[in-house]
Fold each of these.
Amino acid sequence: MGAGHAHKLYRHGHSPVHALPPHCKLAAVFCFVLVVVSTPRTAIWAFALYAGLLAAVAVLARVPAGFLLRRLVFEVPFVAFAFLMPFVVPGAHISVLGVPLSVPGLWDAWNVLAKGTLGVTASVLLAATTELRALLLGLQRLRLPPLLVQIASFMIRYGDVISDEMRRMSVARRSRGFEATGVRHWGVLAKTAGALFIRSYERGERVHLAMVSRGYAGSMPVIDEVTASRAQWTAAAALPAAALAVCLLGWAL
Amino acid sequence: MHVPDGFINTPVCAAAGVVAAGAVAVALRRARRELDERTAPLAGLVAAFIFAVQMLNFPVAAGTSGHLLGGALAAILVGPGTGVLCVSVVLLLQGVLFADGGLTALGVNITDMGVVTVVVAYALFRGLVKLLPRKRRSVTVAAFVSALVSVPAAAVAFTAIYAVGGTTSVPLGQVFTAMVGVHVLIGVGEALITAATVSAVLAVRPDLVYGARGLTAPLKLRVNGELVDAPASPAPTPAPAPAHRSVRALWAAGLGAALVLAGLVSFYASASPDGLEKVAADQGIDKNVRDHASADSPLADYGVSGISDPRVSGGLAGVIGVGATVAVGTGVFRVVRRRSAGGDDDRPARSSEAPRETV
C-alpha cells in the first residue's frame, strides 16, 4: 500500500515479456486460459505441458519461481473446495489409505484444481510483467468501452488513497481505545463505511471539478497510443498457439 | 464466491460473457443518465470505495470475521446503473490484476455478483420504499431487506448457471443447499451492515443516497420561533398524481399477494424432505452420466435441470423468486415506459433539484 505507482503484483524488469505491448499480452493470456479450460480433463500430460509453457514464460520474464509460488499460495481459496469434492460427489468409490474417495469426485477436484491453478498462474504472470497503466491502455485497445476504462483507471488511481483513508480511520478508532470484537461493534464500523463513502463521493466531485477546470469534456485524451508490430503479435501468440497444439493433441489422443 | 477457471464449461461462460457485456452496456447508458458527465470520476471513486470497504473486517465471533460484498450498498447509494458498473469494474480488476476469479469466468462473475445482486437489491429497495411510509426509517428497513435477499439471490443465480454448465458432478441439490444456506447467513450480515451504512450516510448527506431521492421533506424555515414553509422554489416537488397513488396501491397488493403465495406454496411444496433428497440424487446420477460421456452441450440438460431446479427450493427461494420476477418486471416496464416517453427522462431534473433543497 502506498508504495509508489506500481501495484503489489508488478515486478519491474526489462525482459522480452515485459517489453511486449499490453494488449498482445492480454489477448494471449485470455486465449491461453480459454484453451486450457477447453482441454479434456483426462489428458493429464497436457496440463503438465501447459505448466511447462508457463514456466518457460516465467523464465523468459525472469520472474523467480518463489515469487510466483507465493502469489499462488495467497490466491487459491478454491483449493479447499476442490478437496471437498472427493467426499461429496456420488459414484464409484475407491479406498485410499482406508478413506473412501469417489472416483468422479477425484476427477472433478483434479479438473478444477488444474485449470484454476493454470488460470491463476497465467494471470499472475500477466500482472507481474505489465504495469497498471499499460494494462488499462491494453484493455482500451481491446475495445473495452472508454468510459469503463476511465472508471477503472480512476478506481486504480484513487484506490490507495481511499484505502489509506480507511486505514487512518482505523488508526483513529484504535487510538481512542476502540476494539472491534463482535457483532455489537458493527454499528461503529458501518458508520466508518458511511463516512468513507461520503468522503469518496465528495473527493470524486472535487476531482471532477478539477478536471473540468483543466478542460475535461467527457473523454480523456490518449497521449501514448500503444501499437503492436506483427513480430510482437507473433511473439505473444506463441503461448496460446503452443497451448492450442497441446489441446488438439489432447482431444485427438 | 469468485468462480475460478474451469468450473463452468466454455459455452456457458461465453453466454454469461454476452449477458454481462449487454448488462454493462445498459448500465453505461444508465450511469450517464444518473451522473451525466461526472460519470468517470464519481463511478471510479465509488468503485475504489467498494474495493476498500471490502477490506473492512467485521468481526463475527471468536476469531472469524466477514466483509461486505457491496452490491446492494452500491445499488442503493449510487443507483443501479452506476452500481453495476462499479461492481463490474471491481470484478474485472480483481480478475485481471489479483487473479481473483478466472479470466474466462469473468462473465459468470459479473452476471452473478454484479448484475443479479445489484438489480435484485435495487428493484426490491425501490418497491419497498414505495410501499412503506415516507420516513427515514423505512429507507433503512428497505436497505436491510434488499441486501438480505440480494446475496442469496446471487447464490441462486450461481446455482442456475452451475445447473446449465457446471463441469463437476457435485449433485445440484447439494450445491443449491450449500450455496443458499451459506449465503443466507452471509446475507444477514450484509443486510445489517448495509442498513447501518445507508442510515449513517442518510443522517449526514441524505442527498447522496440515490435510492432515497424524492423522499426529501419540504424545506422549513424557522421564523420568529415557529416553522414556516419555505417559499416555493422555481422547481416545485412533483406532487404524486392520483393515478400514481393507485399504481402504488396496486404495487402493494401485488407484491404482498405474491410474497404470501410464494411463501405458502413453497412451504407446502417443500414439506416432504424425501422428495428433495430424491430429486438431488436423480440430479447427481444424471450429471455423472453426462460428464462421463463428456457431451458438453448446454441445451441437452437445459430442459431437465432448468425446470426441476426451482421445485427444490424452500420457502425462501419462493420469496427470492418473487424478488427476481419483480426485478425483471420492473426492468421491462421501465424500458417500455422509456420507449413510449420518447427518451426524455426525469433523472437529471431530479438530481439537479436535490442539492437545491440542501443549500
Note: Residues 236-245, 265-315, 342-359 of chain B have pLDDT under 50 and may be disordered.
Amino acid sequence: MSREFKLPELGENIESALVVKVLIAPGDIVKEDQTIIEIETDKATVEVPSDIAGKVSGVYIKEGDKVPVGAVVFSVEDAGSAAASAPAADVKATSAGEKAPTGSEAPAKDGKKTAPASGGAGSGAASGAATASAGAGTTADASASASAETITDVVLPDLGENITEAMVVKVTVKPGDEIKENDTILEIETDKATVEVPSSASGVVTEVFAEANKHFKVGAVILKVKSVAAKPAPAPATPAGPSPEEVEKSKVAVMQHKIAAPSSIPVPVAGASAVSIAGGTVQLSEAELKELKEDLANPELIANPPKIFLDMQPPILQNAAPAAPSVRRLAREVGVDIRKVPGTGPGGRISLNDVKAYSKALHEGRVSEQPQAGGGGAFLRQQPLPDFSKFGDIERKAMSSIRAKTASHLSYSWATIPHVTQFDKADITILEQLRKQYSPEVAKGGGKLTMTSILVKVISAALKQFPQFNSSVDMEKQEIVYKNYYNIGIAVDTEHGLIVPNIKGTDKMNLTQISAQIAVLSEKARAKKIGLDELQGGCFTISNLGGIGGTYFTPVVNSPEVAILGVSRGLYEQVYRDGEFVPRLMLPLSLSYDHRVIDGADAIRFLRWVVEVLESPFKLLVVE
Amino acid sequence: MIQTKLLVIGAGPGGYAAAFAAADLGMSVTLVDLDKNPGGVCLFRGCIPSKALLHVAKLINEAKEAKNWGVDFGEPRIDLDKLREFKNKVVGKMTGGLGQLAKQRKVYFIQGRASFTSSRSVKVELNDGGKEEIHFERAIIAIGSEIISIPIFNIKSDRLLNSTSALDLPAIPEKLLVIGGGYIGLELGSVYSALGSKVSVVEMMNGLLPGADRDMVSHLTQMLKKKFDAIMLESRVMKLDPVKNGINVTIQDKTGAERVEFYDYVLASIGRRPNTAGLGLENTKVELTTKGHIRVDNTLNTTDPYIYAIGDIAGDPMLAHKATHEARVAVETIAGKRTAFEPAAIPAVVFTDPEIAWAGITETEAREKGIKHEVAKFPWAASGRATTLDRFDGVTKLIVDPDTERILGVGICGPGAGELIAEGTLAIEMGAVASDIKLTIHPHPTLSETVMESAEVFFGESVHLYRPKK
C-alpha cells in the first residue's frame, strides 16, 4: 500500500490554494516536516510540510494548480510496495477506480488493448462494442498477471512524529522466510520507545539489509520480498490504461463535463453515427492517465464542472427550460439560472416577469443561490463594465489571490459593518523622548521600538478596559462574542499586497518582546512566509501609515473584528498650553468602529483613554 | 504580418456570419477561406445550388402531373448547359453578394489555407502563392466538414460522382446509382430523376433517412418508389468496377447474395465528417472529441481559451443554420456578453418531394429515451389546401408532453414542409403549449392550418378530422 498526503486544513474558510512551487518529485525521499510544496492561499504564501515520510511514488499536483483542501498532493511508497508504482495502482485509489468496471477479463484481451492505436478504427459499431466489453478488465487486474514474480522493497516505515531514524534492536526474519503482511520483521529502538515493525508486504524474504545495533533512516530498504500474492505490478511495463470508452464514461460520469481527452483518439468514419464512441483502441500515455487521475481526484472540479462541453450532451437540451429564447437570454444576462425559475405560465412556461420576480427574490435573499464567482463582494453583483478599450489603450491583469481576497474581504466588511470613524490627537512629545531613550534597550531583543509596538501594548490594555472593542458580532444568533485573549493585528504593506498578521497574547508581552515579534512578522510577511496561524485569530488591527505621511484617514474594520486604529504621521504643532503656544509633537489617530456593538460615546472614551496613556504612559502601570 | 482582433477561418454560413457579426460589433476581423468569396460549401457546393436544381425538378414534376388536370406541356426538353448556367448564376449572385457585404463591413478577406502556429497566430498559404502570418486576439474555426470517402471509392473514373461533382451536372445519366439513402443522396437523386435518369438507391440501413421518424419517411419512400427505379435497403456496395461509359457495381443484399449491375453514373453520398487535418491544432490547446469534432463548451469556446469553433467542425448536426446561430453565440461571447448555445430545437429539412422537416424531439427519440409524450397527427388528406394541390401524401404531427401540454417536437411531411417547420420551431423555443397553437388563427386555405389542426387533434377536437374525444 502506498500512503497519500492530502492538502491539510489551512484554516477558516480556506477551501483551496494555489500551488506556487513543488519541491518534490517522484523518487525523492521525503522526511516528515520537510517542506514539499509552497502554496498561496487567499491570505499568504505558506510552506506545507509533509506529515508522512518515504519514497515519493507520485506527485499529483503541479505548479499553477488550484488544489482544494483534502486533495491528494503526493503519495509515498510504504514499506512493501516500494516497487508497486503509481499510475495503475493509484487510478484505483481515486474515484475513477470506483467507476471503472471491476470484471477480471483475461489478460489476452488487455494485451490487445495495449497494442498501437491503429487497430480497430473504422471497423464500425460491432468492433466498437467488442472493444468496450474487452475494456472491462481494470488496470490493476491487467497488471496482476504480469506481476506474479515481483520483488518488493520493504522500507523502514514512518515511525511517528519527528523520528527520522531508529536503531534496529533485533531482526526477526531471515532470507527464505515466508512472511505475511503485518508480521513483525524488526524491533527497533527510537529515542522514545522500542517498537515492533510490521511488514508491509507478503511473500518470501529474499534479502535482509537490516542489522541489529545499526541505525537506519526512515524510508531505507530493510528487506526485499518476493511477492507471491497478486500485487500491483510496476507500471512502466504495462501502459494499458482504461479504454477510451471507459475513460469517456468515467469522465462523463464523475465529472460530467470537464475532461481532457487524449487528442490521439482515432476518428471513426462512415456509418459510425450510431456509435457514440469510437470503435478504435487507444493507448493512454502516462501523462494523460495522470491528468485524468488529477481531474478525477479534484473534488472541486466534480462539484463545479467549469465547462459544459457540447459533445457531452445532446445537441438539444432535453431539460431546456420552457421559456422564450429572449427570456432565457435575459436570465443569463442577469445571472439567474433559468432552470431554477418557477414558471407561472401554462405548462410551467417561464415569463419575463417570472425571471424578474425570481431575480428580485434572489437579491432579497428569499431564495438562496450560490453566489456567482468573480463578483466584488460576497453578495453584490458587479455592474457591467464599459469597454474601456474604446477610450484608450488598456491592459488586463489577473488579480493576485491576495488582492482578490483583500478586495472581497474589504467589500464585505465595508458593506456589512456600519462604520463610524472617530479622530483624535495625542501629544507624544514625552513619549517620543522615552522611545528614543529606550530604543537601544529594546534593540537588544531583536526588534525596534516604534510607535506601532507601543500602540500594540497600549491597545492591549485598552481592550481590557473596553471589552466591547474585543468582540465580534453574531447577527444570526443575535449574540456578541467577547474574547478573553488579546491578539493585535498589524497591517503590513508588502509588494504582494496588504497582509495583516497578528501577535498573539500581547497583553502578556513587554515592549521588547512585542517589538521583536513585529520585526519577525513584518519580515515574514514581506518574504511571503507568513503562516496561516499568524493570520488568524486577530482581535483588533492597527494600521500605521505614519511612515509615509498623511493626517487622518478612515480605515475599514477588519471583519469579524469590530475596531481598527489608523495612525498617521506625528507632527510638531503649536499647542496652547498654560497661556502660551508651545511646539508639541502631535500624533493623529483615527478609530473606525462597528457601530452595531460600539456606541459613539464608548468610542471616544476608548480613544481618549489611548491618548491619555500615550501622553502619560505611567497610567498603564496604574491600571494594570 | 497582420494583426487582427478576430480571425475567422472558413467563410461558410458559420464563418461569414461570425465575421459579419463581429464587424458589426466594431471588431477588426480577418476572414480566411479557399474560395474567392464567402459562402463555403453551403453556397458553392451544397444547399444553394442543390435547391436551385430541386426547384427545377419540382417544376418538371408538376408539369408532368398537370396532365391529370387537363394541361399537357408535352415532354420537357432539357438544355443541360443552360440549366447549369442558371445554377451557377444563383451561386455567383449569392456569393458575390456576400463578397460585397464583407467589403462594406471592412472584413479583411484573404484567400488561402490557414494553419495554427500557436494559440494566438496562424500562417496562411495564400492561393496566389504567397505566405501571410496573422496574429489574433481570438480565432473562430469554421472550416466545416468534408465528403466522406471509403476505399472502394478509390477508382479512376469520371463516372463516379460525389455531391460536389454531381451538382456540376456533367450529363443526364441514363442509369444512376446513388450510394447512401441520406438527404444528400435523395435530394440529388430526385434532381436527376426529374431530369430523366433512372435512379436507384442503395442504403445499408433498413430505411431511408436514418434519424427521421418512419411515418414521415414512409410517405417519401412511397413517392420515391414511383419515381426511382429501385430502392435497395439493407444492401451494400462491395465493389466498383470502372468499365467503358460506366461502372459495374457489385451490390450485396441482406441475404448476402451479390449481383453486378451496370450504371453509367454512380453518386457516392455516404456522409460528411469534420476535417481538422492540416489545421495545426497540435500547436494549440484545442482538443477533439472521440468523433473527431473540435470539443467546445456551450459558448463555443474550445479547450483553448483563445480559440472558438462553430459549425460542422464543432459537432452534429451538420447544418448551416446551426452554424450561423453558433456564430452569433461565439462572437457575442468574445465581445464579453453572457450568452450560450442552448437551443430548444434545431430544425432539419430534407428537400425531397415530399419534403420532410422536423424540430425538437422526434417520436422515435421520445420513445427510445422514455420521454413521456403523446403524438397528435393530422393527415394532409383532410387539408383543403393539400387537396387543391392534388397532394394527399402529407402529414403534420406534434409530439406533446401530456402533463404540461408543451410542444416537444414537430414533424411535417409534404410539399413545403421546410417552410412550415419554422412555426413548430418557434413553438418549441417559446415553450408553447398545444392550446397556444390551437388558439392561434391560421390563414385559410394554407398548409399551415395543418399545424393548428394537429394541435386540435391533441385535444380530440379537430374540425376536419373525426377522432373520438379523449
Note: Residues 401-416 of chain A form the longest helix (16 residues).
